[in-house]
Amino acid sequence: MxxxxxxxxxxxxxxxxxxxxxxxxxxSALKGVRLYAAVRTQEQVQALSKLGVNVIQMDISDAETAxxxxxxxxxxxxxxxxxxxLADIPxxxxxxxxxRRQVSGKQTYFIHSSVITIYSEEAGWPxxxxxxxxxxxxxxxxxxxxxxxxxxNIAVVEEALKHDVKCVNIAVPTVYGTGTGQWRKLxxxxxxxxxxxxxxxxxxxxxxxxxxxxxxxxDLAELYVILVEKILQEEDIPMTETGYxxxxxxxxxxxxIMDGIANALYARGLVPExxxxxxxxxxxxxxxxxxxxxxxxxxxxxxxxxxxxxxYRLGWQPKWTQEKFLxxxxxxxxxxxxxxxxxxxxxxxxxxSEN
Length: 355
Ligand SMILES: NC(=O)c1ccc[n+]([C@@H]2O[C@H](COP(=O)([O-])OP(=O)(O)OC[C@H]3O[C@@H](n4cnc5c(N)ncnc54)[C@H](OP(=O)(O)O)[C@@H]3O)[C@@H](O)[C@H]2O)c1
What we know:
By secondary structure, the protein is of the alpha/beta class. The protein has two domains: 4-175 and 214-246, Rossmann fold, CATH 3.40.50; 189-211 and 252-301 and 321-348, no CATH class. It is 42% helix and 15% strand. It is globular and about 65 Å long. Bound molecules: NADP nicotinamide-adenine-dinucleotide phosphate (NAP). NADP nicotinamide-adenine-dinucleotide phosphate (NAP) binds at residues 9, 11-15, 40-41, 59-61, 81-84, 113, 115, 172, 174-175, 184, 187-189, 344-346.
């Protein structure tokens, strides 16, 4: 039986919101479960310490530290939200969960956070509909993609199989809405577009529209909680090779979003016109937004053809629709004005020398 759960990236947008929802749930499944929150800085420790959870300051990419955190705290489940890009971190954590399994004799679990955009042609995935019930692990291996997120997905399953740890993979789409964590409350993409528009007093869009999968942070956090509950209740749900969950509630039409951002910024006097311009180049977009140049097309123009099945089969019922989302773009702008603490660090691992 799982008793102790470690949440990595607990000061982050997704991890903070998941932690907050896990603390708020009245589910009997979580009775007696102790939550551990991994954060990177002392300020984050202070911010989270009021929650009454065990906050651990650590660099989870350090092998010794990660192993010690799992073994000393007798962690049976890790909810990993700190990086979809670096395979090394999940490998370390899964190895530690394997050791913990040997010591305790109990099954251990790893919930991975990945990226749904990898299942789009712009990211190198073959054309056509892709469901999370498809044999994705086999397909990912067959493709032999060099995409770091795909390589990490493969490593997660392979390492889990090797150490008899059960894992699930949440393929996260474009997330929006204000998070409920104690530190970072804003997402990656939409706040970056708003931040850059304010800074340069101009709103840009890509020359091609895209409509990627999307989800409100409250619906996404609910899916994590459902998965944790199902695992705690030892329900027979898809895991490991078949454990992929597309956390997709609806789509996010970029050009309509950018129009909404331009109108909201113009109404506040933050841009001189409510017009949206085309990025002069992808390189400039990548530089301004702080997104990796290699993935800027996928991040800015991909739609993909993903169909979520597994999460809905578990009873997940997202409350936010595309219509409600588009009506809330003004709130997205206001949230940046109220809560922005700057760009996420998640892409820095691709360019460690610039850190
Ligand atoms: N938000 C989205 O729209 C979205 C979409 C698709 C996929 N995802 C994926 O979901 C994951 C979480 O995203 P997010 O929006 O929550 O990002 P985030 O707000 O930047 O959260 C990531 C957290 O992990 C922490 N972290 C990273 N490396 C660490 C390390 N070595 N040691 C300790 N802590 C570390 C970060 O610490 P610092 O605060 O010190 O940086 C941060 O608090 C990412 O992998 C991202 O790729 C997100």
